[in-house]
Amino acid sequence: MNSELIPIFQAKNKVIHIFGVSGTYKTAFLVQIICQKLKEGVKQIFLVDASGNFPYVKLKPIENLLSKLIVFQPKSLKEEVLILDDLEIKGITQDTILLIDDIFHRINPEQENHLESYILAIIQSLSQRLNFPIFITNEGRGFDNRIHPLRSTLMTRYFENHLFFQKSTKKNVIQIMKLVNDRQVHLTELQIDSSGLFPDLL
Description:
With about 200 residues, the chain is α/β, with parallel strands linked by helices.
């Protein structure tokens, strides 16, 4: 495993917020978490595919394990809230893994701002029950210029761990920055292979 990312994967009771512009392999990061954890024998993974664009074809090499992957594809942010609310009410085991891809894809900025805070509060509550961190991806342009100022404030209020993915000047390399005291600090770089995954991640 990439040594700089070991503390991230060991962050019990935490939420890891991954953001960056489209095409920075944020979802590929989640694909590899699913593949690795199912190979390790995890009993259950919940995936909230908020955009409906998750690359399921990349999971083909482990198709014999996919019965343990439970996928939700909400059609609205309200439906996404209901899914997460239901998980909180029913309870999930401490060994469950929860991944949310493109969390605010379905948001209507003029009508659903009040749901943003609510959904983040649910995720924070769920994280306190899990041994493995909750990973969420989100479209954003950088620590100093995210898509929505309110969302930026909410994310930093509820979550401590923020990773910004951006393309490096090096070919087929993604640079990962970490937010530390409102400043972005270089964390690591990951090489991208021909399949669009990170061979050095896990």
